[in-house]
Amino acid sequence: MKFNRLLLVLSVLTLSACATTDSSNPKDPYEEYNRGVWEFNRAIDKAILKPTAEGYQAITPDPIEKGISNFFSNLGEIETIINDLLQAKFGKAGRDTGRFLINSTLGLAGFLDPATEMGLEKEEEDFGQTLAAWGFDSGPYLMLPFIGPSTARDGIGFVVDKTALYSPYDELNDSQTEWSLRALDLIQTRAELLPLEEQLEQALDEYSLVRDAYLQRREFLIYDGRPPIEDDCEFEEDCEDW
Fold first, then answer.
1. What is this structure's pTM?
2. Which first-to-last residue range defines the signal peptide (predicted)?
């Protein structure tokens, strides 16, 4: 387990230094490499993850599936709260803490989501966003084996979130229980993405669709839903015509 984590850290830190630049897209300079990894990940998904998620969804009643989704979402609030504090978003940290406490108690360990009904909407913060708040550039877009779309910054953030920051899984002394929960979390997450499968398969270029959607979503999250408007006007008089 520790070796796999170390391998991921090294791959994220060194890929941009050793890969060959082969794309005209400035955000995706290693497109040829990334497309190869995308095909690898997609093959594994079609062979294992997608069929498993479809089977899980077919046999699991909708209320139970929703409850499992809520449970893992509630566990993720701890990661969000820590990154709220690291970004000095203390008001948001207070709201997210309130959401976590309400769902952990009134929501029966998170299987229900009364906090949303009370107006405490779920928000996401991770260490990749924290690095962005600290001024770190995103670096090149990367497609990571088994993990999926990322950037150099988000890849490092992923490793920190899963290894350095507190995780409820750290409290489990039974490795079998831990990995069973992790597997269920993965399957549930994949099941939630099944409605997007048709749109993905109809795309002229699946890889580009996933890349562009990922980068846009990350920018949206980093700026808390208010990304800056890009100014495409080369001269001031051009802007006055709009």
1. 0.84
2. 1-19
